[in-house]
Amino acid sequence: MPSAYLLVSHGSRDPRPEIAMQHLAQMVRNKLHCLQPKSQMVGVAYLELSPESLHEQVIRFARDAIACGCDRLKILPLFLLPGVHVMEDIPSQVDLARQVVGEDIMIDLLLYLGSNSGLKRLLERKVTNNYQWILLAHGSRRSGSKLVVEDMAACLGAVAAYWNVKQSLLLRVRELIGAGYEKIGILPYFLFAGGVTDAICWRIEELRLEFSEVCFFLAEPLGMSDELVDLVWELLE
């Protein structure tokens, strides 16, 4: 019997991430059509800022999947870090859904997107050698999640900073300037553009005014690409 697939993201008041999520779901659906013609049920759900709680969204999608003849539902968290949302919030919501759905369909919670080592390839394409780079992640209050960012930054020859840690970006910039760097690139470790990436853009403009002798370059977040779809598919298989 075919499987159904549910892509879970954080949720946002900004419409752009939702548009990107729908686009990603359609691209995964197209890939499924080529590889598994009988399994094309791909949906999206949101942990926060949705009229329904996540477990209610999972229950509704699971029931639709059962009606379409699916016996397995695979849930992929589209998160880059193993923070509280990935390690606690989403699993608890999925468990609530399992209790309601019962044995009518098997619900598998897959590894989060950031666990795919192929993300490094996508980030490497954004990093140029003529800049010293800062990998700017959102950050998490969960201990251990920073190690993932630090390791990724090291692989890229960059240093890490965290948007939700006060002055983290500024301190990194000052460190690099003190070390003699005059060209600094900031790579947002975010999946899609939205409110936070807009705020980062404004912060970079402030840094340009404060450190006029330095050339700053702000890269785009990961964004939509065929390569991203391939990484998602690797986790869904």
Automatic annotation (TrEMBL):
Tagged with keyword Amino-acid biosynthesis: no
Keyword Lyase assigned: yes
Superkingdom field: Bacteria
Any Pfam family: CbiX
Keyword tags: Lyase, Metal-binding
InterPro entries membership: CbiX-like, Sirohydro_Cobaltochel/CbiX
GO molecular function, one term: lyase activity
Protein name: Sirohydrochlorin chelatase
Organism: Iningainema tapete BLCC-T55
